[in-house]
Amino acid sequence: MGLSGSKRATRAAGRGGGTAARGASGTGLAMRSTAAASRFQCTLASDYAASREIQKAILNDITRRGFNGQSVFAVQLALEEALINAIKHGNRFAAHKKVQVQAKVTNRQAEIIIEDEGNGFDRACVPDPTLLENLEKCCGRGILLIESYMSSVQWSHEGRRLRMVKKNEADVLPRR
Amino acid sequence: MAVTPSSVLITRQEDIRIVEFTHNKILDEANIADIGAQLGTLVDETPDPKLLLDFANVDHLSSAALGMLINVNNRIRGKNGKLRLTNIKPQIFEVFVITKLNKLFRIFPNRTEALGSFEQ
Q1: Alpha-carbon distance A19 to A86, whole Å?
Q2: Could you tell me the residue ranges of all domains in chain A?
Q3: What's the rounded Cα separation, in Å, for the pair B87 and B111?
Q4: Which residues, listed in sequence order, are joined to residue B61 by a DSSP beta bridge?
Q5: Entry pTM
Q6: Under CATH, to which class is A18-167 assigned?
């Protein structure tokens, strides 16, 4: 299953073949997995430590499902950047604001939706970090990396919601 | 009391400081801040710092890590020093290319070439 030993896994009733698990106490991670797809959902506090468990769970699952090395790297990078953006830039580490994470992983693709409770932003107004005048700035590259490494990216809810998909395709380099 | 392992291993070849990263993932902000602080100390120690960063152990890094490297580069340039990067794995090098930071940093495929470049 790829879950850490601290999680409790129970056999799903009904159709069978799938497993369901909840995260370690306090994290709220819910996962349901069948041969066809794994689904993840959690509500995170606005701090980086809270995001580690769902990152690990998603990466374990895509690795288990045979995603190629390039795709695993891409998902790890984009997921890290997206969660940092939601926690730091979206919610500004506000204790009362949460980050919602949902993911659906099949053998063919990983779909991840991340939504914060911040003020939102206009994607069109984000400076291009690859321009010469921005090259020596220390921040502003997270969105570029997400959009370069994922197969598709959609922003909605005034920038508070990010939906990104990575297809498990061999020999597909990130967009430059 | 437990001692936190250092994030970097520092050796010296003549007046060049060689820095190896001990963690394979430079993602965590606390780790990045620690690395940045240690590199900053190296830069402050000498009037014309020469620093070689060896990425042989690094499998993942975040944009925050790139920001830290840019900050170090800016500080070294401010002291007329030299910074080189080497042994960057293909997937990590791709990150530098996408962000066009391969134009900002002087990157070499191996230590020998990187060390030789300090005299040029």
Answers
A1: 29
A2: 18-167
A3: 7
A4: B26
A5: 0.88
A6: alpha beta
Which residue has tokens 């779909």?
Answer: A111
pLDDT recorded at residue A25? 36
Question: Cα B73 from chain centroid?
Answer: 9
Tokens 């391969």 -> residue: B102
Angle ∠(B52,B53,B59) on CA atoms, nearest 5:
160
- Are A144 and B99 inside 8 Å of each other by CB? yes
Which has the closest alpha carbon to B72: B98, B44, B100?
Answer: B44
B70 contacts A136? CB cut-off 8 A: yes
As a whole number of angstroms, the distance between CA A7 and CA A3 comes to 7
pLDDT digits (tens, 9 = 90+) for A99-134: 999 999 999 999 999 999 999 999 999 999 999 999
Instruction: Report which residue type is found at A140.
Output: G
Do residues A110 and A67 make contact, with C-beta atoms less than 8 angstroms apart?
yes
Return the ∠ at Cα A23 (arms to A68 and A76), rounded to 5°: 25
CB contact under 8 A, B94 and A173: yes
DSSP letter at A88? Answer: I
ipTM: 0.91
The Cα-based distances of A26 to A22, A23, A80 in angstroms read 10, 8, 21
Name every residue whose Cβ is closer than 8 Å to that of residue B46 and which is 6 or more positions away in sequence.
Answer: B15, B81
Which residue among A48, A81, A130 places its CB closest to the CB of B100? Answer: A130
Domains and CATH numbers, chain B: 8-117 (3.30.750.24)
pLDDT in tens, A6-20: 344 333 333 445 677
Chain B residue with Cα closest to A88? B29
Q: Which residues pair with A38 in a beta bridge?
A: A33, A105
Using a CB–CB cutoff of 8 Å, tell me whether A130 touches chain B: yes
